[in-house]
Amino acid sequence: MQSMKELIRTTDIVVMSALKAALSAEGIEAFEFDGDISSTYGGIDPFPRRLMVRAEDYEPATEVARAICPDYVQ
Questions:
Q1: Cα Rg for the chain, rounded, in angstroms?
Q2: From CA 37, how far away is CA 61, in angstroms rounded?
Q3: CA 29 to CA 27: how far, in whole Å?
């Protein structure tokens, strides 16, 4: 089993979509976690979605994220 790391956490689906597309263009597979709960309970209280990448892809994914959404990357 491969280890995963959280790249960003956001309630902004536009940022999530743009980053997933940019990562895909770079050949980095990203996985969205918590989307179901966010959709189900989003009207009551916003639940953030997490974008996860494989641990070995974390550094290059961070570079892509800094270019796309610098406010979301630590």
A1: 12
A2: 25
A3: 6
Residue 43 reports pLDDT greater than 60: no
- Domain spans of the chain, in order of start: 4-72
Give the count of alpha carbons within 13 A of 31, CB side only.
12
Q: Tell me the CA distances in angstroms from 12 to 3, 16, 33, 50, one per residue in order.
A: 25, 6, 14, 11
Return the amino acid letter for 37. I
Strand partners, 33: 50
**Cα–Cα dist 42/30, whole Å:** 22
- Fold observed for domain 4-72: Alpha-Beta Plaits (3.30.70)
Report the SS3 class of residue 43: coil
Residue with tokens 């918590």: 34
Task: Tell me if the pTM is above 0.90.
Answer: no
